[in-house]
Amino acid sequence: MKGYRLFLKKFLEDKPATLGLLIILGLIVTAILAPYIAPYPNDVFDNHPAERLQPPSWQHPFGTDSLGRDIFSRILFGGRITLLISVTVVGLSILIGVPTGLIAGYYENVLSEVIMRVADIFLAIPRVILAMAMAQALGPSLPNVMLALSVTYWPWFTRIVVAETKALKKTIFIEATEALGASDFRTIVFHILPNIASPIIVRSTIGMGFTILTAAVLGFLGLGAQPPTPEWGAAIADSRLFLPDAWWYATFPGLAIFLVVMGFNMLGDGLRDVIDPRLRRSR
What we know:
The chain is 73% helix and 0% strand. It has twelve helices and no strands.
């Protein structure tokens, strides 16, 4: 308990990290309560041509889009899509990347070499381009985008886990565990994995921000969630025909993406500083 208190104290002393945490908590709360907070929850799917492209007002705080839908309401519901994409993609990437990294880092055999060479191939291609190609091949849809992003992100976890596992494997306590006759499974799961959880958590947090940004790019290109799903990247793409007159159309979804990505990055940096002081940012 004392360790958790010390961790929380150090984390809260980091103002950017605390701000990032508040932004992410705000996203989670507004996403959960979107049906109750949104002034026009039905405007997520309904069209009102008579109210199209109205500027921000008391009635529509963020204005309306080309179909007369309330942008503020759609951004709130879009937060649900954003959280679904980030959690699903990072979760699947961990499920693939961590086990393969543990195997490749602990063993020195043909399977380890195959895993690392496959990871190198994925890392050699820019993630956005590879995700675009896969999403296009699979077909534009939200599940296909999440699958494409997961397939392109797991090697990052593999690389981190391999490096940490190889370093731990040379430590005295791991050698002692092996000398006492512990099985490879027990050594990996109960001794190595808990000791490499910290970098995995940090990479996951930062990766969520990057995943949201990449998903927004794919949505902007029409490869993500399809209309009338309230996805932030798709909303910016729809607004291009109405700029600069309807400036609010692109501005508020863009600000939502900016704030959430910034929040995840600041939170990840703060966790990194507290968990691993060797990587502490210069102030």
